[in-house]
Amino acid sequence: MEAKARLLCKSYLTHFQTFIPVYFYGTPGAKVYCVYAHFSKYEKSVTTLDVIFLQHEDYSYNYKLDLILDSQSNIIMLEDFRNEVNRPGKPYTTIKKYEDFKSYAEVQKFLDEMVLDKLEELELENA
Predict the structure, then answer these.
(1) Is residue 38 pLDDT above 70, yes or no?
(2) Using one digit for the tens of pLDDT, what is the confidence trace for 89-112?
(3) d(CA 108, CA 33)
């Protein structure tokens, strides 16, 4: 069976400038990714959204043991991780941006159907 990214948590209360949920994934390549959407164009006739993939620089993920680790390799409990990633000032690197979604429903469909495949592609590109 092929290993896929695991959803660590989904948060509605973050410092990201979006009202749409923010998703945090752990991957087999030991990375922690953040995925969120935000509005990119505000025009009378057209409003579009972008989906952003970020890599969290303070955390890694042990896929085999299902553990979140901080930068000193200390085990972080999921509740502590949820609280920490929602605070501003955490270091992220933007990895990929998908543009021009026409609705939140379109974004949600992309996230539901494609996010695991896209994370797998990122793992291969950034190995």
Answers:
(1) yes
(2) 888 888 888 887 888 788 777 776
(3) 17
The tokens describing 13, both together, are: 């209360």
The DSSP 8-state label assigned to residue 44 in this structure reads: S
Cα–Cα dist 82/98, whole Å: 25
Q: Identify the DSSP state of 66.
A: T
In the chain, pLDDT over 70 holds for what percent of residues?
A: 88
Whole-structure pTM over 0.85, yes or no? no
- Token pair of 39, please? 């509005």
Query: Tokens at residue 65, please?
Result: 């043991």
Strands (E), 1-124: 6-11, 22-26, 31-42, 47-62, 67-70, 75-76, 92-101
The 10 Å Cβ neighbour count of residue 23 is: 19
Q: Which of 23, 7, 11 is nearest to 86 (CA)?
A: 11
Which candidate, 108, 99, 117, 121, places its Cα nearest to that of 51? 99
Rounded CA-CA distance 41/34 in Å is 22
| Statement: residue 33 has pLDDT above 80 | yes
Asked if 120 and 5 count as a contact pair (C-beta separation under 8 A), the reply is: yes
